[in-house]
Design brief:
Elongation Factor Tu (Ef-tu), domain 3; 3 helices; 6-stranded antiparallel barrel; 2 domains; 60s Ribosomal Protein L30, Chain: A
Length: 244
């Protein structure tokens, strides 16, 4: 193990040059594969998304517990083990991000977003397999609060687009409704469980809420009705949002 070595296969090209300036969800960026590894890109076009593994050499490696971004408790109560979060500070500072391929020109791959700063070395690319990597039933307890309403909206929009594949008026409407509910009712928190009812005549609206909140008809967390409203039930109270 003392001889363990990594060989960078490429480099990130991003408009963000300082890691501290990187938005939480990243920015449009590219990966340039070094010429000696170009043969490894054969048939990359078979995949719409890839995992990008990068070496985050600008971070520390000694800490095993950190306070994640968005956690307000800066004392012992806010600490999380590095294996429980995506912090770049870890024994082996390997970053992992899934990204959608926008285009490829030679050894340069344009991606919808990466949260790695310019010049970050890439140690591997792997295809995202929808048959293996998508775990719709996965659940995560909330780690930290979003910094703003806009941060909530951007996160929800990304999740909805990843589930639905393309924007639509009802997708954007679902994002706005859920943004209001999370900020005005939940104070930026996630509920212990979701209980949402949508009109049966608006399937794209239902799909968007499934992508945002992971509700489902089979679990009973998503219901359908004939009224032109979206209904949330939280702690015994009902919240109605009229639809245009």
């Amino acid at each position: 193990m003392a001889d363990l070595a990594l060989h960078p296969v490429g480099v990130v090209r991003s408009p963000v040059t300082d890691r501290k300036d990187m938005p939480p969800l990243g920015v449009p960026a590219a990966v340039e594969i070094f010429p000696e590894f170009s043969d490894g890109l054969l048939h990359l076009e078979k995949h719409s998304h890839i995992w990008v593994l990068a070496w985050l050499d600008q971070t520390g490696r000694g800490a095993l517990q950190v306070t994640p971004r968005g956690v307000r408790d800066q004392g012992a109560g806010g600490l999380h083990g590095v294996f429980a979060v995506r912090s770049p500070t870890r024994p082996n500072p390997i970053g992992l991000t899934a990204a959608r391929i926008l285009s490829r020109s030679g050894n340069r791959i344009e991606l919808d977003r990466l949260d790695f700063s310019d010049g970050t070395l890439v140690v591997d690319l792997k295809p995202y397999f929808s048959t293996r990597d998508m775990i719709f039933s996965a659940r995560n307890a909330q780690v930290g609060k979003p910094a703003s309403i806009q941060a909530v909206r951007e996160s929800l929009l990304m999740q909805a687009l990843q589930f639905c594949g393309a924007p639509s008026p009802d997708l954007e409407l679902a994002v706005e409704i859920c943004t209001r509910f999370r900020t005005e009712v939940l104070d930026f928190n996630d509920p212990p469980q979701w209980d949402i009812t949508v009109p049966s005549s608006r399937p794209q609206l239902a799909d968007a809420f499934m992508g945002i909140t992971r509700v489902s008809l089979g679990q009973g967390s998503l219901r359908l009705h004939s009224e032109p409203t979206v209904v949330f039930v939280h702690e015994g109270r009902r919240y109605d949002y009229a639809l245009p």
